[in-house]
Amino acid sequence: MWTTTPSSILLSLLFLSSVLGKVAEPKSRKTDACQPRKTTFSSSRSGYTPIKPSTISLSHQGIELHLARPEGKISVLKDGTNDKQSVGATVNSTFSLWYGKVSFEISAPTVPGVITAAILISDSSNHQEEIDIEILGSQPHAFQTNVFAPAAKDKGEEPLYGVLGGTSKLKGSETISDLHRYTIDWNKDRIIWTVDGKHARTLKKNETTINGALHYPSHPMRLQFGIWDASSPVGTSEWAGGPIKWNGKGGSHLGTITAVVRSIEVECP
């Protein structure tokens, strides 16, 4: 289902991990198997902390995730990437879960080169696992899903980024800019992704054995969501349909790009 090369997927997911994964662990983080909760961001962001508060705002729509235009002149390099990248919003939960069902209500921008992501990511540096939803501005009628769970046997081998990934389409003429409910339902045997209550994809644990080793997420994870600029490096930009065209025609300029997360709900088995 992937239309890009393995190398471009590898670069893009390495970049996603570096952008969304760099976060100081909140001292108050609480790890439980699962605790049900629902947060509607128009009134509160309790349980969630932004890495950089200035990149978010609360409105009647929800929590707005901002990707501001880089300062100064922005040029396109010979390799087709931008010479400057913006740093967008990343928000982390102050709690973790160990299996459960997580739903994100998201409206994402349809700007090529922009990625809106909602993921589960492991707390421990010893277990760098992820379950991802990636919404590409260059693909307005679809979204991508992915799993990353290294095995001890992989040591010294090329990381298996993207190998367990896939692409799912939205219904009819609907686009990612419409508000959709994206869900990750994760237990010890399988992961199910749905959108607006409709099945999108299932990945079973026994389907994640690669080179004789299991690559299935099995450790506590925190929730994380954000917006990021995929204008560089080359492989990432190609995957994302970038770079972002900040400089429009006739001297016009693209300003701040925004995604909105209205709510997040955690349901437990």
UniProtKB/TrEMBL annotation:
GO biological process, one term: carbohydrate metabolic process
One Pfam family from the record: Glyco_hydro_16
GH16 domain span: 1-248
Signal peptide: 1-21
UniProt keywords, alphabetically: Glycosidase, Hydrolase, Signal
Gene3D superfamilies for the chain: 2.60.120.200
Sample GO molecular function, one term: hydrolase activity, hydrolyzing O-glycosyl compounds
Source organism, top-level taxon: Eukaryota
Record has Protease as a keyword: no
InterPro entries: Beta-glucanase-like (IPR000757), Beta-glucanase/XTH (IPR044791), ConA-like_dom_sf (IPR013320)
Coiled-coil spans in chain: none
Stated name of the protein: Glycosyl hydrolases family 16-domain-containing protein
Organism: Pterulicium gracile
